[in-house]
Amino acid sequence: MEYSIGPGKTAVYFRGSLADIFESYQNVLFVFDENTRKLFPDISSSVSVVLTPGENEKNWNSVNKIIEKAVKSGLARDSLFVGVGGGVVCDLTGAAASLYMRGSRLVLIPTTLLAMADAALGGKTGFDYQGYKNIVGTFYPAETLYILPEVLLSLPEREYRSGLAEIIKHGFLKDRKILNILERKKGLILKRDAAVIKDLVTRSLEVKGWFVEQDFKEKNIRRYLNLGHTFGHALETVTGFSTVSHGEAVAWGMVMALKTGIMLQETDESWAKEAEGFIKMYGYDTDYHKNISIDELLAAIQHDKKKKKGEVRFVLQRGQGDNFITPVDHDILRAALSA
Question: What is the DSSP letter of 309?
Answer without folding.
Answer: T
